[in-house]
Amino acid sequence: MTSTRIAGGSGFRARRIAFAALAALAAVVGVVALSGFHTQLREIDPSGPDAASEVASTEMIGIRTFAAPTGLDVAEDLEYGTREDGTLLTLDVCSPAPDALVAVRPAVVSIHGGSWSRGDKANADWRNVCLWLASEGFVAASVNYRLVPDVRFPAAIDDVALAVEWLRAPEQVERFGIDPTRIGAFGGSAGGNLASLLGTSGDGPLDEGVRVAAVAELSGPVGLGAAELAADGASPWLRGIIAEYLGCEPGAGIDACPQQADASPATRVDPSDPPFFIGHSEQEVVPVGQSQRFAATLGAAGVPVEVAIVPGAEHSIGILDEPLRARVAAFLHAYLG
Predict the structure, then answer these.
(1) Taking the CA atoms of the chain, what radius of gyration do you get in angstroms?
(2) Cα separation, 287 vs 219, whole angstroms
(3) Number of C-alpha atoms within 13 angstroms, CB side, residue 332?
(4) Which class is domain 10-336?
(5) SS3 call for 248
(6) Across the strands, what pairs with 261?
(7) pLDDT above 90 coverage of the chain, percent
(8) Share in percent of the chain as helix, strand, coil (round to 5)
(9) DSSP of 255-298, one letter per residue?
(10) How large is the angle between the packed helices 155-168 and 190-200, nearest 10 degrees?
(11) What CA–CA distance (Å, rounded) separates 179 from 131?
């Protein structure tokens, strides 16, 4: 069974120590008990509407306007870890067409949205994201992670951080031709929150461990504190899904939920963080003030940040049309190569 890995930062490091101690205790108990107990392995298997994209519209918008070229390769359902409860974590890898002149390529972890409670790495929209990134010359890893209500924060960020480590391991570096010093993250909606957490967690070099060298996120709720949500006029719906994700006590409200700070990328910014691209639409379900405030915080810390606020009310990869794809790709190429 693969060990749990925790993202950087003091809170995550403390949990890493606690999990290590629990794992050691579990091993001792297992040997002494000799009970033959075995944790049954199970895959994350969204089905029906739970697997659908967070883009609710049926229109041909955003990433749906992308047509993948021929020659891309997709390796599906690769296991990148196993959790203590038996959950198998899987991802899909989309690779560019072979090129004899390119020895290694940068990689991008692609993180789906869905309110932290639904969505799937391989639904039609996120498969298109994976293929689009591959068409731009990146090795793209589209990840599944554990979802609410089976888990609460920080399970999802722990999972996607483990995916970064998996990509950086020598086996994957060799198999997919990855440059382990050039790994970035892309996410939308809840996946934008997780991509941003990857970028703002820890303070070490950007080419080691679970750190990433660039982040592009769309429509991410990045300030989950009660004060930020009130300032943005966040809807009861948004407050509700955040409270569920954080595991706040029923009826207590987000203001009584201590996890709000650790789960908010905006509270974790420091000058060591990687460059960010932030995309948002003016009138969507996640208030645009979330992205504007986050960009200002990054800029004040000296972190390079590019912001694209587009008209309309489309959400997440629903705004990822051809012009925005060109901007995001140019950003990723600028910082990942």
Answers:
(1) 19
(2) 8
(3) 31
(4) alpha beta
(5) coil
(6) none
(7) 80
(8) 40, 20, 40
(9) GG-THHHHT-GGGS--TTSPPEEEEEETTSSS-HHHHHHHHHHH
(10) 60
(11) 19
Which residues 6+ apart lie within 8 Å of 5 measured at CB?
16, 81, 158, 161, 162, 165, 210
**Could you read off the pLDDT of 21-49 as tens digits, one per residue?**
434 433 333 333 333 344 578 888 787 88
- For the record, the structure tokens of 328 come out as 């995001």
Average pLDDT, the chain: 89
Pairing assessment for the beta strands 73-82 and 87-95 based on DSSP bridges? antiparallel
pTM of the model: 0.88
Tokens of 75: 């390796």
Tokens 């190569």 found at: 337
- Asked if residue 77 lies in contact with residue 33, where contact means CB atoms within 8 angstroms, the answer is no
SS3 134: helix
> Are 55 and 318 spatial neighbours (Cβ–Cβ below 8 Å)?
yes
Domain coordinates in residue numbering, the chain: 10-336
Could you tell me whether strands 276-281 and 215-218 are parallel, antiparallel, or unpaired per DSSP bridges? Answer: parallel
Is residue 132 within 8 Å of residue 147, measured between CB atoms? no
Task: Identify the CA nearest to 94 among candidates 191, 159, 167.
Answer: 167
Res 151 pLDDT > 50: yes
Q: Report CA-CA distances (Å) from 125 to 54, 264, 315, 316, 330.
A: 9, 26, 13, 11, 21
Q: Would you give the end-to-end CA distance of the chain in angstroms? A: 35
